[in-house]
Amino acid sequence: MLDGMYGKGSKQEKTKEINSVHQIIVYEVNNHITETYIRSNASRTILRLVRALDFVAAFMERLKKEPNIAFRDVVQQSYEEKLAPFHSWPARKAVGVATYTLPSRNDFLMTIGAKEDVLNEGGSYDVLVGDLQLVCDISFKYFTEYDLQNLP
């Protein structure tokens, strides 16, 4: 799975050794890989991906729960809640400007091949949002457990 990423050992040993997000975090913490700013590490990348996934889950939930607010505001509020705390001032301002270029809610739904009633039916949409949030919650638990929630 992560062949060649962590130095010595056969391909088979590495695959056996590291095959989950939790094992990646444990390996990197035990080998002090997360303590340096010079080295890139999988934990930092995974944390960023989980934060992005958390944003997507919040966006999808807000899109369903708040059908009467502007699409731009749905995106902006989700961004401010989930990602803005980790971004610099210039990045936050750039995102704010970029939200003015977003399509309308209906145009967005049409682009992704969905209709408003898909959001209101529940079912698979709600399951997807729940599953996304579950993945984020479990992942954030690991990052908190190993005090890695503030990796740069």
TrEMBL record:
Glycolipid transfer protein domain span: 13-113
Domain of life: Eukaryota
Source species of the chain: Planoprotostelium fungivorum
A Gene Ontology molecular function term of the record: ceramide 1-phosphate binding
GO cellular component: a single term: cytosol
UniProt name for this protein: Glycolipid transfer protein domain-containing protein 1-like
Pfam families, A to Z: GLTP (PF08718)
